[in-house]
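Posting for a labmate who doesn't have an account.
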Amino acid sequence: MTSNIEEYTIPLTHKKRGVIEDISEIAAVGHRVVHGGEEFSNSTVITPRVIRVIKSYFKLAPLHNPPNLLGIKVARKLLPGIKHVAVFDTAFHQTIPPSAYLYALPYNFYRRDKIRKYGFHGTSHKYVALKAAEILRKPITKLKLITCHLGNGCSITAVKGGKSINTSMGFTPLEGLVMGTRSGDIDPAIVFYLMNKKNLSVAKIDNLLNKKSGLLGMSG
């Protein structure tokens, strides 16, 4: 974290390119956070407990939750007198039914360790669904939609009546479609093969699947 925290305000208050005249105009700050598990189904004011939950999901969202939390720390130091709100990617998908979010694993893994499909890009999928309803001039409650979030990270979601009922990402943002550097769905036995035949550690496989696969890996 930079020692000169005031540098972050320069783009906001720049005379030609800024969007506000003074930092005091900011009434609240919203922070996108990728993984909130089952704890949050809505946006929530950031408290010490919320920060602990964000930290607890570092391992499940290694590309996202750590920098998300860093941004929160910087903003809270810069703007200590206002509310900071976490908007979780996983929140929109809390309406997915058990038939879609449970994996075919021993049930104790869900009950004890909360291993299940969580889904991500929820803020994007919710926005796209609402925008589609607006463009179609139909109530969101009457629509059945497939929404797509396509970028370096990719996911698709089935939305019924404005609620997520299934999505391509799962326990982590690694599952689902082929992405920029993430593999998406692969045969799980490939992991065992890499460990046994190539002598790769868990950490190296994690790095391989998250940062060196997908379109990057396929392109050679």
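Reply:
Got it, the structure tokens are right above this. The mean pLDDT is 93.
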